[in-house]
Amino acid sequence: MNTIKIKDLENMVSRLNDELNTPQNPWGEEGGKMVANVGCFHLSQAYGGVDLHQMSNTGGGVRDVFFSGHVTKRKLFASIRGMLTGIEHARVYGEIQ
Question: Which candidate in 16, 42, 91, 92 could, as Cys together with 26 as Cys, close a disulfide (CB 3.0–4.6 Å)?
Answer without folding.
Answer: 42
